[in-house]
Each structure stands twice: as C-alpha cells, then as structure tokens.
Design a protein that fits this description.
Blueprint lengths: L3 H13 L2 H8 L3 H15 L4 E4 L2 E4 L1 H26 L6 E7 L1 H18 L3 E7 L13 E4 L8 E9 L1 E5 L1 H7 L13 E4 L28 E3 L2 H9 L4 E5 L10 E3 L8 E8 L6 H15 L4
Parallel strand pairs: 3-4, 3-5, 8-9, 8-10
Antiparallel strand pairs: 1-2, 5-12, 6-12, 7-10, 7-11
Helix pairs in contact: 1-2, 1-3, 1-4, 2-3
Amino acid sequence: MMDWDKLRIFHTVAEAGSFTHAGERLNLSQSAISRQIGALEEGLGQLLFHRHARGLILTEQGELLHRTVRTVFQELTMVESRLSDNRERPSGPLKISTTVAFGSSWLTPRIKDFIELYPEIEISLLLTDEEVDLSMREADIAIRMAPPRQPDLIQRRLLTLLTHIYASPSYLEKNGVPKTVEDLEHHRLIIYGFDTPPPVASINWLLDVGTMPDKRRKAVLRVNNLYGVYRAARSGLGLAALPDYMIPEDIDITRVLPELSGPSIQTYFVYPEELRHSKRISIFRDFLLQKVAEIKP
C-alpha cells in the first residue's frame, strides 16, 4: 500500500516542478523531499520524474499517478468538508490565504466580528504574496488580487481597490510637495521589489507614470511586501504608491497629487470546486460581502 504522506509530497513536487520549491511549500529540506520521492519510486518500481538541470518533468507513469492523486485529494477534501458542515452550526478549521498587505491592513481587523459570530470555526490566516495551491489544501480560501488561472477554482469578485501616492508630512516639509507628475523625478521613491512575483502586475506604476517608455524612474528602496513599503513611507524616507485601504484615518500621512491614481485592482474570493457546498465557505463569503458593503464611498 502506498504511503499517503509520500503521495502528498509527490503531488506537491509535481505541482511545484522542483524539490526546492516543494520544500518551501512543505517546510521540508530539499534532501528530505528527494529521499521521500526516491522511496516512493523504489516502492512502485517506477521512475516518476525525469531529472534535469532546469527542474523536474513527470514521466508517463508519473503523469498517471499525479492525475489519480489529485482526484483522490479533491474527493477527500469534499468528504471532510461535508462531515464538518453536517452539524447544526458550522464548525471546524477554515484556512484563509491573502497578501501580506491586504491581510494585515484590511482583513485582520475585521476577523474579530466573524469569530464572535461563529466561535466554533477555527480561523487560520496565511499571509503571503505568493500564490498558494488550493487544490492541495494549502488553504481553503484565497483572496487574490487577480482572477485564478486554475480552471477548477470558483471565483467571486469581492472589492475594487484604488491606489494613490502617499508621503509623511516630515518628508514633504523637507523635500517639498510635488505639484505635477514631472516633479516626481526629483523625489525619492519607495517600491515593491525582489525576485518573487508581485501580488499585482501594476504595483510599481509610480516608476512609469508620466514618463517615456525608456525613461523609467529609479527607486531609493525596494521592499518585498507592501506593508514594509507603507512603513518606510511613514518614516519619512520618500513617496510610495499605496492602496487606500492601508491608510488609517487617524495616521498623519499625506496623499500627494490626489488627482493622480494608479490602475484599479480587483480582488477575488477564490475556493476549490469541491468546497462549493461548504457552509464555512459560504458564511465567510457572505460576511466579507457585508463588510465590503459597509465601506464608505
């Protein structure tokens, strides 16, 4: 009989395309992942991956096992959800994934109301700017800044986000307030950066707005999440393009060039097809829609 833990690791490796990326998702070392896959291949007497310098490719036998394992895990997810929801009140775990900025600034302050309404639901928040694999139950729900690419995920548009340029009063007092887009050339800019894909493709529009295609501005600082960008702007380092939801009403920070806004961002409530009938999913979705409706225009 095949080991379920090895099958879970196999599926993650197949989805990630490398031992390294699979290890990051599972919080295991590359060598531990490699040993588990080797043991699975030895037990089956079949090679499951072709190894090469750029990553891993499933063999024909690996493709067959991957399709089967994916279906089994989806069925198990559906059964688990129905067993948990077949009680009088919704209960059980609910793992929600979203970006660091949206989760810490918008979602987390509102979770208290949901927990008080449904104390038997065990909420876990996974805040990461990387896209988690919902089919492997890395989360039950994702709130994403772009529509899902996987065909087996259900999506619902949740909220439209607007971004503007912000700076601390101390920075503006020292460096002056930009009056035109051209004035941005003379200011320090803080942006999202690093090698990981950004949560939104247009996140660094501040570098390009009002410039020629080959005249992109330079940044004084790159930070790998928007909350860090926000904190750097508050410290007086420079200007930053930030979603309006990140700016508390009682914080002394100034919107610069208020008539100028970046591309709007659509957020999506996303979950797997097999959780379509989950009460925990539906009540959390309805809760978020109510919170969105309460936002002042």
